């Protein structure tokens, strides 16, 4: 009986502790259709994840959940896939025991009123009230833009111009308010948004004012993760590029042990910039495991997380990562900034000597295997020259530069009547490539050689890659002069036109 009573007391104590961590969000809105789906998202660093769903019935919705370990949840309320709403959210800050009430009289969700005892919410509300009229106008334009998705570009461009104009006015008002308020986490969130405009918007008019606000932060605030992210936006670090020495820093594993990228020199290194909230990043993990095993003798895969420490550990426990799984614990302010990562997944292939060979972003099924075959397998091939009668054959000629990793020159045949260039093509399975009918060869003295015919591909038409993602074709051009030592393959002068320059005909 005593054991039973003791167990009951423990259970009641646990339930009481759980209740003390709960907060509720109660919504009452007008002008919104019943059945409208409302999503509640949790914001953790740069990751947004859905934590609850409800539908509006009789103008009401309700959420109850436990606060996270930090004791403060930053949330956003959204109505996705609904053209009656703008592409925006309502920001909510929640702490244990908070009873939060949301009210609105229309679908302009970003400016629904939030009645809350949480001090961060009160401060956030002050920024909203400071520009409520502008925010409402901006949301109406956002709703209109949704309805014009198939309208002429000129009409959509005019809407975007109006949005940009209103956004600039909001920034001006916010900066004036920030000059009056003390620096806080909410204040720094606002400065972070301004710093993003400094970094990405060449027409942003308030760079000097943003810098003045930045200088209000003390050293501890600048050293915080948010402060460092603001710093690299306003003062971008030197970004490494292909051909440079790799950037390095202290990197931590899940046990807190320090590593450096230089630890892995001697093999090729594939850097994988990822986050647990990035769908394609997660889709790529099984393929990453395959290439790590396939190329284990010559390649080290290093995944670098931009998540918060707690989220990175939780995601790592969920996904089996048998390769190097590290973080500099600076989210997007550390190596992410030094490698110029603006979108993920992002990949960097580094040579055994520590030189950056290739940088790319995005993932499609099979694309990592193709990249490894394109670059790692190519290192096993050596340029060779043979003669077959009057034909000179150059196998795997080296080249000086290229703007495409889709094409590889496999062989060049030189005769008195033609120059035949054999290509290997690497691309996402069942996606198409296209060779321009205007492609030509240009020799090292400026001589031009026109395309005569093609085999295995029809210039100007879509060519779909097979399931393997690899294909071969050849292009026949006018014969090169016998004195030519190198040539360029070019489709034209546009940025998207393929160029392979300095294709060598002699060792």
Would you write up a description of this structure?
- Helix content is 30%, strand content 29%.
- By secondary structure, the chain is an alpha+beta fold.
- The protein folds into 3 domains: 2-118, Carboxypeptidase-like, regulatory domain (Immunoglobulin-like, Sandwich); 251-364, Glutaredoxin (3-Layer(aba) Sandwich); 381-504, Sandwich (Immunoglobulin-like).
- A 10-stranded antiparallel beta sheet has the order 16-17-19-20-25-23-22-26-27-18.
- Helix 3 (132-147) runs antiparallel to helix 4, helix 5 (185-200) runs antiparallel to helix 6 and helix 5 packs parallel to helix 8 (225-234).
- The longest helix is centred in the N-terminal third of the chain and has 28 residues, at 153-180.
- Keywords: Cytochrome c-type biogenesis, Disulfide bond, Redox-active center, Signal.
- Pfam families: AhpC-TSA.
- This is TlpA disulfide reductase family protein.
Blueprint of the fold:
Blueprint: H1 2-21, E1 22-29, E2 37-44, E3 47-55, E4 60-66, E5 73-78, E6 90-94, E7 99-104, E8 113-115, H2 119-130, H3 132-147, H4 153-180, H5 185-200, H6 207-214, H7 219-223, H8 225-234, E9 251-252, E10 258-259, E11 268-274, H9 279-294, E12 299-305, H10 309-318, E13 324-326, H11 335-338, E14 346-350, E15 356-361, H12 367-375, E16 384-388, E17 391-395, E18 401-402, E19 407-414, E20 419-426, E21 432-433, E22 440-443, E23 448-455, E24 463-464, E25 470-477, E26 486-490, E27 499-504
Parallel strand pairs: 1-7, 11-12, 12-13
Antiparallel strand pairs: 1-4, 2-3, 2-5, 5-6, 7-8, 9-10, 11-14, 14-15, 16-17, 17-19, 18-27, 19-20, 20-25, 21-24, 22-23, 22-26, 23-25, 26-27
Helix pairs in contact: 3-4, 4-5, 5-6, 5-8
